[in-house]
Amino acid sequence: MAVWLFVFVVLAVLAILGSIEQFWFDETWLGVLASDQFILLITAGLLLCLLGWSLIPTSKLAKINRLLKAWLLASIVLLFVVRTLVAYVAYEMHTPNARYMVSADAHIHTLSDGIYDDILGTSFRQVATLHNIKPIIPSAHHPSTLKIYNPFGEFNPNPSIMSTQEDLDKLKSMEGMTVLLSANPNVTQADLSKLAKVQPAMRLAAEILITPIDKTPSASGFDTNQWLRTRHIHAQAKILSVGEIAPLEAESLAQRFYFRLEQFRHRLRTHFYQDWHKLSASQSQARAVSLSLMTGDRALIDKHTKELYQLAGISHLLAISGTHVLFLAVILSELVTFMTDKFAQRIYAHLPRWQIRMMVMVLASLVYALFTGFDVPAVRTVYLLIAAWLVRYLILPTGMISVLAWVALLMIWLDPYVLWQAGFWLSFIAVLLLMRYESKIDMTNETNQNQGQLIRRWLQFKQAVRLQFWLFFSMLPVSILLFGKVSIWGLVVNLFAIGLFGFVVVPINLIAGAVFGILPELSQLLWGVSSAVLYWLHDFLYFGLSSQIGSLGAWLYAPFGMAGFLLSFMVVGLWILPNVLPRVLIILPLVAMIFLGLPKQIPHFKLIILPSDTPNISQMLLSYHNANQQKYWLILNDLGAKSLRANHTQTLTDQLYRLGAAQHGIDGIIVQSPSAIFLPVVGQLAKALPVYRFWQAGNHEPLANIHHTPCRAGLHWQSEGIGIKALTGWHEIGDERVQHCEIEVLADLPLNTQNLIEDKFEPNFGETDTDTSNQTQLIISTNREPMLWQLWDMLCLSDEELKLVTPAGYHSVWLSTTHAADASHVKANLDTPQLLYLDK
């Protein structure tokens, strides 16, 4: 029952979370959903439903019992849906819908996510709650230098008059909101050096710019909105100036205890950050990983180390997992029971030994989970220990898989947004797989008792390798769904990395942290050993994985869409949960996946817009497929970008792999603009995947590892059913305004334009009938300089290759931008072109 209930609840809650933005709540319902009494009411309803389920007797009235269970199951799922609505309303009550410039007191409860360092240029990031929020009125000190929407100033042109009631309501609603404070020393002009002194249990007076959370996922697929919501952060806030920093008084004993834990984490960070600027990059990152494995503090780990762990497939080892919590809990419970055996055996007359052990394990795991940030894997371990204690104490007739499902349901009830956390899925699925595999290991060990020691060691090694393959392939669907790709090197590296971290590095760090307050010299010695081990591990990984051989084909991408993921989950579920449905049914999704993975023979001609986090550029993938061939062309444009993001090439490579273009190979790359901004990107793409030709507008030194051709007027490429020709581009003239390369594509298939924006009201061109022909003439024109088409006008009179007309039987499509130069006289030569825009 628990497993099926978990499945139905997850589907219902995810459906609500994905569509809840479309809901509308009136004031009455908002008041009901936001009240504490309503939460208590639905919680009581849930407990009554569960109690009713347990009281249904097993009798001959099987049909009535099934109906009652079905009704209770539906009621429980409905209560979870209502709980999700309550969580959404509670979150949205403090969420701003515009940018505001305010002064406020930021209450710091936890350790910061980033350190403000002027020397290294690292950014400050800190989760904080805002209080005493006041509007900043434009004045001589704050003129309109910040071009932002500030309603408190705009609604009140007279600073001596108080803001309107609407403004005051906004201030009141933001009181107590949680924000992610940020400050970058590389871009700010204000003196924010005080931020280096901020630590937990402090109050920071600051002027900040509050910005709503962007709900558009990044080009890499990372969803900032979901990530911040899972942390209950309502907005992002940029620090403009810093005022007084003062201690923050705890409001309760529990909060005082929590502050002490966070301050101890900060003390450890300060200890590790000593002489940080004198260390090499390798030495500092070995320290940073040591600190992360002990306290869960990943603020000191830089981007390169995170990418190295991702490439090695061991980034999960950087997080505080159940292994860390369980190790410390077991050690402390053994120590307590040992001391009890020696000095206080009379306690056993009142409490059994196993209860004392479980009590210590639960308390130790709870404290350590709080100490490391209360991440999902650590919380799951605490709840599982409590559940196991209750099952044994009450002698409940339930299996551990059901207990795991009940724990997951409890976490969903407490926070429905936990379903958006990757750690939730990876943690519970890993535990489920280990539970299923443990029974097989126990059966194998019983049969190998009579074997020799050498043979038993060999069999244990085979079991470890088999377990790693079992975990890798069973978690492959959910890993690719969550992260978009999975490193194949994880199969190999995890074989020794899990043991190295679990039996060497993590115990050393935990022991060093436990004795730090008593024997700091011993702690420093142990941390030195841990850092040395990690230093050599990082060097080994850099040497083995960052080379040409190590990085080639290191990533595994999904060869199918959402339907393939659902079928993969069905296969894994039927395999690891044979008691839910017959395992023979696994044949059905396997056959469906085989048919889904077969090459599709449907002809198509598509222009796919590739999103980017860099503004003022365009990236398009031209995909053509007929019965005999498949062609891919990548078309790039610089529309005024100053620079590209650091991860631009990797994000673009991932997008090409997900679309299946990289595996086939890119037949050509065209950079229409004469800018050199894309040259490094094309060079790196040519190393990562097959690229057969490269057309670049302007005069540039040719790239060494690719067939580089200047994109000039008249340059063309032809294949069966599709041809590409450059209409403009005269690199002989030393003026970039006439070096831009506009292109024409002729294809014998209709163009799929579902992701492009159409302008149906362009003057001088009537309505466009997109179904008049099955052949397409596509012109891509993004140039901003009118001189380019003026020169084309003069030259096309004497050059037949440059003339632009609509061939008989073709449908014309003109793709441009809103800032492109006027080309009405060129469009007049075409037969009622369909007008599409990249940015309108």
UniProtKB/TrEMBL annotation:
InterPro entries: ComEC_N, Competence_DNA_uptake. The chain crosses the membrane at residues 38-56, 68-91, 308-333, 354-371, 383-410, 417-437, 467-484, 491-519, 525-545, 552-574, 580-598. It is found in: Cell membrane. Its main location: membrane. It is a multi-pass membrane protein. Keywords: Cell membrane, Membrane, Transmembrane, Transmembrane helix. It comes from Moraxella catarrhalis. Pfam families: Competence (PF03772). It comes from the Bacteria. GO terms for cellular component: plasma membrane. Residues 293-569 form the ComEC/Rec2-related protein domain. This is DNA internalization-related competence protein ComEC/Rec2.
